[in-house]
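We emphasize that the prediction below concerns an isolated chain of 390 residues; any contacts that depend on oligomerization or on bound cofactors are therefore not represented. The input was used exactly as deposited, without trimming of termini.
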Amino acid sequence: MPGSGTKIPSSSVRLKLALCFPVPLLALAAACQKGPAGPAGPAMQAMPVQVHVVQAQQISDSSEYLAILKSRHSAAINPQVEGQITKIFVKSGDHVKAGTPILQIDPLKQQATVGSQEASRAAQEANLRYAQTELERQRQLFEAGVVSKQQFDNAQTNRDAALAQLKALGEQVNQQQVELRYYRVSAPMAGIIGDIPVREGDRVAVTTLLTTVDEPGTLEAYVYVPAERGRDLHLGLPVHLLDESGKPVSDARITFVSPEVDNDTQTILAKASIENPKRQLRVSQQMRAQVVWSNHQGPVVPVLSVTRINGRFFVFLAVKDGANIVARQKGLTIGDTVGNDYVVLDGLKPGDHLIVSGTQFLQDGMPVVEQIQNAAAAPAPDNPEKGAER
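Result of the prediction step, given as a token string:
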């Protein structure tokens, strides 16, 4: 250059230099063309999440069926005779003792029958006395040789026939007197009178239900189990009676298993004795019966922490990734629902840190800050290698 004594290389010389030293020159050119380096982008903020440490719980393998409560100390009262009701002595809800009269059926016709039979028996008693007197007379004459042996035998036969006829009439009178007692219906045992659907003046037959008498105490739950579970039924299985909200009302155990399958419903009848000290349960009440087949230990997860994608179930776990804690999506195999939780068959183990809040905003690998709910049972989250094994 003028004034410096330095010559500027021509363009051909510069091309030759670039060909001889391509990499440094190109890098230098690129460096010259680039401006100053800009600031690095901000790191992703860790999202605070609530974490529940998974613990093993006792899980029951159970099934629910319909149960009907019945009483071994309950009697349905039907009349043993036909007739018209003339008097009702009790009302529904009364406590009665054994033998207490409940109602009266018109007995006039039966009383007339009893009176007629008693009159026939009285007439036959007179016939027997005459036959006995005649027999004694014929015996004396026979012994004196006045009458023949045949006449004496005839007198003996007449007296025996009169005696047999009297016994028959006596039995008929007793039968009619017993039947007369049926016209007053009495309580067969101590208990509480149920509904009385009949009224005074109604005509009843032997098939008419008059009322019921229930003795407070132990009930039996009739549980109808499908035949395919029959091989699992055995005496001693726990049974929980549940109310409408699913809360246990009473606990019992199976005391009877029918050896036969009902041909119409294809179910097996199982019975369980139910204590009813507070009389909360009633005869003929229908309830849900939970039969517990077995118990085992296993993890459960809240229903709201589980997401379903294409028919599969997933949760987010908090796991260590180097110095950070990140959210990892984990597939599950779930079983039945217990309360507000799913039973986990595969995919979780006790000690895993389950994320239970904000799962709709999480992505796999997203940094999180744990807020552990059950801190007393909280070990450190698994490292990435262990998390990958699960």
